[in-house]
Automatic annotation (TrEMBL):
Annotated stretches, region: Disordered: 504-589
GO molecular function: ATP binding; microtubule binding; microtubule motor activity
Keyword vocabulary terms for this entry: ATP-binding, Coiled coil, Cytoplasm, Cytoskeleton, Microtubule, Motor protein, Nucleotide-binding, Phosphoprotein
Intracellular or extracellular location(s): Cytoplasm, Cytoskeleton
Composition bias, Basic and acidic residues: 549-576
InterPro entries: KIF6/9_C, Kinesin-like_fam, Kinesin_motor_CS, Kinesin_motor_dom, Kinesin_motor_dom_sf, P-loop_NTPase
Record-given protein name: Kinesin-like protein
Binding site for ATP: G107, Q108, T109, G110, A111, G112, K113, T114
Gene Ontology cellular-component terms listed: microtubule
Pfam family, one: KIF9
C-alpha cells in the first residue's frame, strides 16, 4: 500500500500487479473488402497483411510483403453491442471498485472512431461506447444500495493545441475568463478551468453528452463528410461512500473515454485552408502520442515525453499509469487504404508493449475519522477507569483541566516559590504539564513587573539618535562630553555624573549608595538573573536619563489583500430549484449578491473599500498640509522677527555678503524644508483627488451593473419559463430577462407533449431507451430555440 499526502487529506493507493494494455482492432465494413490482402487468424486475435511485390523495382527486390499482428481481438462486422461487451464492460465495472479506466479510439480519418465511441444518436441500437458506459454506471449504482455513489462528468476538447470546455455553453456555467491549463498534483493530472457537472440520473448525463456533441468542431473533406477536427475526452468521475458510519474509507475513480481525431494524408483528403491547418495539428499531436507510446514500451527509457503536446500531457496518468487502458484501433478493409491500415496496426502493436499498474484509489473521510476517534477515545477512558478501580486507585479525572483547577495549580506554584509549600502532589501527566506551564507564567509575570518598574523611572536613549541627544543637552540633562548629569531623586540617589554642587569627597559614597539601592530594589521586585543580564546589556548599548514619561511610538499598519486562485480542482455547478412563489425583491437581492451576482458584488465592495481608503488618505494628507502651513507661518514670523532684530542691531557685511547669525540661518533652512514638504504633500493630495474621482466613477458603474444584472436575473429566475433557461446562450446580446415576460412563450410545447405520449406507447418494450431519447429531444429543442433567437437578432439588426 502506498500513501500520499496533500495538505490535510491522506490518499491511499493499493498497489496492483502490472498488466499489459489491451488492444483491439475494429474493421470498417465495406463492399470492397480486400480478401486477398487482409486475413484473420482462427483465434480471431491475429490479422495478417499481404502485399504484392512491386515489379517496377526490378529483379532484386527486398520489399517486405507480409505482416502479422497479434492483438487481443479482431472485431469484423461486429455490432455495437458486441464491441461494448468485448472492449469496455469490464473497464466500467472495475471503475466502481476504485480502478481508473481509459478507453481510446485511434485510427485513420473516416475509419469509424466517433461511431465506435459515440455512435449514432438517431437509433438507440447504434449508440456507442460512451452512452452505454453511462447506462452501465447508473445500473450498477442501483445494484449497490449499501454505498452512496456520486457521478460527475466533464467534456474536454483539444483543438489546434488549445483546450476548450464543450459544456461551457450551459447557462449556469458561462465562458471562462482565464484560459484552461493542465495542472499536475500528487493525485494525477487535471484541467484547471474545466467545468465538472453533477449528474444524479441517467437522463441528465445523456443531456450533457449531447450538449457537448453539438459543440464539437467538424469539417468535410474527400474521405469523410463529418470529420472530427479535434481530440475529445469525456470523463466520468465516481465517488463511492459506504452508508455505514463507522467506515471512514471511500473510493474514487474516473473513466476517460477518448475520441482521437483521425490521421490523414493530405494528398488523399485534399484538405485546404483551415482544414489543412487543422490536419497539420492533428498529425503533429498523433505523432507525439506515438513517440510517448514508444518510450513507454521501452523499459530502458527513463524519460517519457508527455509534455510535447496537450494531448499526451492531458493523458499522462492514463498512458502507462495506474489505470486499465484499452485501445480500439479502427481501420479500413479496402486495398486503397492499406498503407494507413499498416500504420494503425503498428501503433496498436506498440501499445501492446506498454504496461500499466491498476490500483484502487482509496481516501479517508476526515469527518467520519474524527467521529470514530472520539468513540475510541471514550472507550479508552472507560477502560482506564476500570483499570484504576481494579488497582485500588482513587478516582482520577483524565479530562482537560478547567479554569478553577488551573488557578489552584497556579496558587500551589506561587506558594512553592515563596517557600510556604514543601512539595506539589503529582496526580497525572496532564497535571505535570500544567505545573510546568504555570512556572513559565509566574516567571513571565515577574519579568514584566520588573521591566515596567524600571521603565517608569528611566527612559532608554539610543546613542545614535543625535536629535534626541541634542534635545537632552539643551534641557541640561547631559554635558558637552556626552556624560549624563544626575540629580538625587526622592530615594536619595542619582544616576550619571554628579553635578558640580556636590562635593568631590562624597562621590564614592554616592556610587556605593547607587549600587546598594539598585540591589535592594531588584530584590524587592523579585528580579532574577536573566532580567539582570538583560538590563546590563541594554545599559551598555544605550544611555539612561531620568524622565517621567516615555517617548511616542508610531505604529505602521499594513493591509494585505489576498486573492484566491482557483481551486486546484475543477468547478462544479448545480442549477437551483425554482420556488412556487417569487420572493420579495429585497430578499432576492441579498440572495443574488451571495450567489449569481457574488462576483459583481465583490468587485463593488472592493472598489468601495479602495474609495474609502483613498478618501481617508486624502483627509490625512490635508491635515498634514494644514499643519505644515501653520508651521510655515510660525517660522516666517520668527524669521521676520530675527530680520527686524538684526536690522536694529546693525547688519554686518563681508565682501558684499550679508552675515547672519546661526539662529536665523537655521530658520531659513527650516522654512525651505517646510516649503519642500508642503509642495510634496500638495502634489500627493492632487493625485489622491484624481484617484478618488476615478474610484467614484468605478463604484457608480458597479452599482449600476449590479442593479441591472439583478433585474435581469430576477425576471429569468422567477418569471421566465424553465424550459427556456437551458436554452439561453451565455454572451447573447438579447437575454430573456431583458424581454417582456408576456412575450416569452415555450417553443415546441405541444410537440413535446405529443412525443411524450407516443414515447410511452411505442417504447414500452424498451424502457432503457426512454432517458436516451428524452435527452436527445431536449438537445434538439435547444438547437431549434437557438436558431430562432439568432434569426430574431438578425431581424432586429436589419
Amino acid at each position: 500500500m502506498m500513501r500520499r499526502k496533500n495538505g490535510d487529506k491522506r490518499y491511499f493507493t493499493r498497489m496492483g500487479t502490472r498488466k499489459k494494455v489491451h488492444a483491439f482492432v475494429r474493421v470498417k465494413p465495406t463492399d470492397d473488402f480486400a480478401h486477398e490482402m487482409i486475413t484473420y487468424g482462427d483465434d480471431n486475435k491475429t490479422i495478417d497483411i499481404h502485399l504484392k511485390k512491386d515489379t517496377r523495382r526490378g529483379v532484386v527486390n527486398n520489399q517486405q510483403t507480409d505482416w502479422s499482428f497479434k492483438l487481443d481481438g479482431v472485431l469484423h462486422d461486429a455490432s455495437q453491442d458486441l464491441v461494448y461487451e468485448t472492449v469496455a464492460k469490464d473497464v466500467v465495472s472495475q471503475a466502481l471498485d476504485g480502478y481508473n479506466g481509459t478507453i481510446m479510439c485511434y485510427g485513420q480519418t473516416g475509419a469509424g472512431k466517433t461511431y465506435t465511441m459515440t455512435g449514432a444518436t438517431e437509433n438507440y441500437k447504434h449508440r456507442g461506447i460512451l452512452p452505454r458506459a453511462l447506462q452501465q454506471v447508473f445500473r450498477m449504482i442501483e445494484e449497490r444500495p449499501t454505498h452512496a455513489i456520486t457521478v460527475r462528468v466533464s467534456y474536454l476538447e483539444i483543438y489546434n493545441e488549445s483546450l476548450f470546455d464543450l459544456l461551457s455553453t450551459l447557462p449556469y456555467v458561462g465562458p471562462s475568463v482565464t484560459p484552461m491549463t493542465i495542472v499536475e498534483n500528487p493525485q494525477g493530472v487535471f484541467i484547471k478551468g474545466l467545468s465538472v457537472h453533477l449528474t444524479s440520473q441517467e437522463e441528465d448525463a445523456f443531456s450533457l453528452l449531447f450538449e457537448g456533441e453539438t459543440n464539437r468542431i467538424i469539417a468535410s473533406h474527400t474521405m469523410n463528410k463529418s470529420s472530427s477536427r479535434s481530440h475529445c475526452i469525456f470523463t466520468i468521475y465516481m465517488e463511492a461512500h459506504s452508508r455505514t458510519l463507522s467506515n471512514e474509507k471511500y473510493i474514487t475513480s474516473k473513466i476517460n473515454l477518448v475520441d482521437l481525431a483521425g490521421s490523414e494524408r493530405l494528398g488523399k483528403s485534399g484538405s485546404e485552408g483551415r482544414v489543412l491547418k487543422e490536419a497539420t495539428y492533428i498529425n503533429k499531436s498523433l505523432s507525439f502520442l506515438e513517440q510517448a507510446i514508444i518510450a513507454l514500451g521501452d523499459q530502458k527509457r527513463d524519460h517519457i515525453p508527455f509534455r510535447q503536446c496537450k494531448l499526451t500531457h492531458a493523458l499522462k496518468d492514463s498512458l502507462g499509469g495506474n489505470c486499465n487502458l484499452v485501445l480500439v484501433t479502427n481501420i479500413y478493409g479496402e486495398a486503397a487504404q492499406l498503407e494507413e491500415t499498416l500504420s494503425s496496426l503498428r501503433f496498436a502493436s506498440r501499445m501492446k508493449l506498454v504496461t500499466t499498474e491498476p490500483a484502487i484509489n482509496e481516501k479517508y473521510d476526515a469527518e467520519r475519522m474524527v467521529k470514530n476517534l472520539e468513540k475510541e477515545l471514550a472507550l479508552l477512558k472507560q477502560e482506564l477507569a476500570i483499570h484504576d478501580s481494579l488497582a485500588n486507585r482513587t478516582l482520577v479525572n483524565y479530562d482537560p483541566m478547567d479554569e478553577i483547577q488551573i488557578a489552584e495549580i497556579n496558587s500551589q506554584v506561587r506558594r512553592y516559590l515563596e517557600g510556604t509549600l514543601d512539595e506539589i502532589d503529582i496526580i497525572n501527566l496532564r497535571q505535570i504539564q500544567e505545573v510546568f506551564n504555570q512556572f513559565r507564567v509566574v516567571l513571565s509575570q515577574q519579568e514584566q513587573e520588573v521591566e515596567s518598574s524600571l521603565r517608569r523611572k528611566y527612559t532608554l536613549i539610543d546613542k545614535n539618535d543625535f536629535a534626541t541627544i541634542s534635545a537632552v543637552q539643551k534641557a541640561g540633562l547631559m554635558d558637552v562630553d556626552g556624560h549624563l548629569v544626575g540629580e538625587p531623586d526622592g530615594q536619595g540617589f542619582g544616576l550619571g555624573v554628579a553635578p558640580f554642587s556636590i562635593k568631590p569627597g562624597k562621590k564614592s559614597k554616592s556610587k556605593k549608595t547607587i549600587k546598594e539601592q539598585f540591589s535592594s530594589s531588584a530584590r524587592k521586585e523579585g528580579a532574577s538573573s536573566p532580567v539582570s543580564k538583560e538590563l546590563e546589556v541594554s545599559t551598555s548599548k544605550s544611555q539612561l536619563t531620568p524622565s517621567s514619561k516615555d517617548g511616542d511610538v508610531k505604529d505602521m499598519l499594513l493591509r494585505d489583500r489576498e486573492t484566491s486562485n482557483t481551486s486546484d480542482s475543477p468547478k462544479e455547478e448545480l442549477r437551483p430549484l425554482r420556488p412556487s412563489t417569487p420572493p420579495s425583491k429585497p430578499v432576492a437581492f441579498e440572495d443574488f449578491k451571495n450567489e449569481r451576482g457574488s462576483e459583481i458584488n465583490r468587485i463593488f465592495k472592493e472598489n468601495k473599500s479602495i474609495l474609502n481608503e483613498r478618501r481617508k488618505r486624502a483627509s490625512e494628507t490635508t491635515q498634514r498640509i494644514n499643519a505644515i502651513k501653520r508651521e510655515i507661518d510660525v517660522t516666517k514670523e520668527a524669521l521676520n522677527f530675527q530680520k527686524s532684530l538684526r536690522e536694529k542691531q546693525g547688519e554686518y557685511e563681508n565682501k558684499g555678503l550679508m552675515i547672519i547669525d546661526e539662529e536665523e540661518f537655521l530658520l531659513i533652512l527650516k522654512l525651505k524644508d517646510l516649503k519642500k514638504q508642503y509642495r510634496t504633500e500638495y502634489q500627493d493630495l492632487r493625485d489622491l483627488r484624481a484617484e478618488i474621482q476615478y474610484c467614484q466613477h468605478l463604484v457608480d458603474q458597479c452599482r449600476h451593473r449590479l442593479l441591472t444584472e439583478f433585474d435581469i436575473w430576477y425576471n429569468e429566475s422567477f418569471f421566465v419559463p424553465e424550459d427556456l433557461q437551458v436554452a439561453v446562450k451565455p454572451g447573447c446580446s438579447i437575454r430573456p430577462g431583458m424581454m417582456p415576460v408576456s412575450r416569452i412563450v415555450s417553443l415546441g410545447e405541444d410537440d413535446q407533449d405529443k412525443f411524450s405520449q407516443l414515447q410511452q406507447t411505442m417504447l414500452s418494450e424498451g424502457p432503457d431507451s426512454i432517458s436516451f431519447y428524452n435527452a436527445k429531444v431536449k438537445t434538439e429543442q435547444k438547437q431549434n430555440y437557438l436558431k430562432t433567437m439568432m434569426g430574431f437578432q438578425q431581424t432586429q439588426r436589419k
